[in-house]
C-alpha cells in the first residue's frame, strides 16, 4: 500500500509534459518554436518565477479544444494516482486560454469532464479551483468569475497566481468578495517571491483559507505566530522552490524549521512537468535530504488531509488509511 496523499497545490497547465506538448502541437497544427524534444527540454533552466512563466505561457498554446483540456487532466490524474494521490484540489488558469481565443466552456468543461471521469476510473476525487492571473487586470478576473458563476461548469474555489511581485493581493479584493458571496473556497499564492506583507493582506483583505507557498512568512515572526495560532495551511512545493531559486538546494529548504515552528505545512508539486517531479518525487527528495521517518511522512500526509476542503467523512476515511499505512511500516 502506498502512503495516501492529498495534493493541494497543482497547476493543471504545469503538468503539460514535453511529449504531450509535441503531441498536441501535431494534433492541432500549432507551430512550436522548438524543433525537437531536446531543444524544448533545454529551455527548462529557470532563474526565477518569471523565467518559468514565460515558457509556461508559450507551451500552453498547444491546448486548443475541449478534448485537449480533458487529455491534459486525465494524464495528470493517472500520474497522480500512481503516486498515491487520493484527492487533488487542482488549479486551472482560464484567462491563460480565453485571452488567446479558447472558449471558456471548452477549457473548463474539458477539465471538469476529466476530473469526474478520474474519480470514477482512478479513485482520485478532486476539487476545481480557478486561479486568476494577478499580472492582468482585476476587472478581467471579475468578468471571468461572473461568467463562470453564470455558466454550466461548477467550481469549488478561486485562487491567485502568476507573477507575484508588484501585484499585491489587495488588487483582487472585489473578486474575492464575489467568490465568498458565491460560497466558493478561497486560496491565493502569497509569499513565494513576494514579501510577508502579501501574506498578511491575503489573509486580511482576501480572507483566504490557505496560503499557497507562503514560505517567505518565515521572515516575519508575528506572521508565523498568527499562521500557527490559526492553523492556517501553507501549500509548500519544495522542488518548485529549488527550480525557481527561492531556495538554493533541497537541503537548504526550510521545511524542517516550518514543522518545528508548528506550521500546518503540506507538500505539493506546483508544476511537476517543469520542476523535476510529481508529489511522490517531492516527498522522495525531502526524505533523502532530511531522512524523514515514516511518522514524519504520515504527518505531512495528515496535514494535507486537514488542509483540504474535503468534508469530515472524506477526511476521516483518509486519516484511517494513513494510520493503516503507518501501522504497516517496519
Ligand atoms: O508556480 C507558480 N507560481 C505562480 N504562478 C504560477 N502559475 C503557474 N505556476 C505558477
Ligand atoms: Zn503555484
Please tag this protein with its features.
single chain; 330 residues; alpha/beta; TIM Barrel; 8-stranded parallel sheet; 16 helices; 13% strand; binds hypoxanthine; binds zinc ion
What is the CATH fold-level name?
TIM Barrel
Strands, total number: 8
CATH class: Alpha Beta
Overall domain count: 1
Strand order of the largest sheet: 1-2-3-4-5-6-7-8
- CATH architecture identity: Alpha-Beta Barrel
Order of helices and strands: EHHHHEHHEHEHEHEHEHHEHHHH
Distance between the termini: 13 Å
Q: Structural class of the helices, strands and pairings?
A: alpha/beta
Helix content class: 40-55%
Q: Mean pLDDT score, rounded?
A: 98
Spans of at least 5 consecutive residues whose pLDDT stays below 50 are none
Radius of gyration over alpha carbons?
19 Å
Ligand types:
hypoxanthine, zinc ion
Q: Looking at the structure, what is the overall shape?
A: globular
Tally the helices.
16
Relative strand content: 5-15%
- CATH-wise, what's the superfamily? Metal-dependent hydrolases
Major β-sheet profile: 8 strands, parallel
GO biological process, one term: nucleotide metabolic process
Function: Catalyzes the hydrolytic deamination of adenine to hypoxanthine. Plays an important role in the purine salvage pathway and in nitrogen catabolism.
Cofactor: Zn(2+)
Binding site for substrate: 271
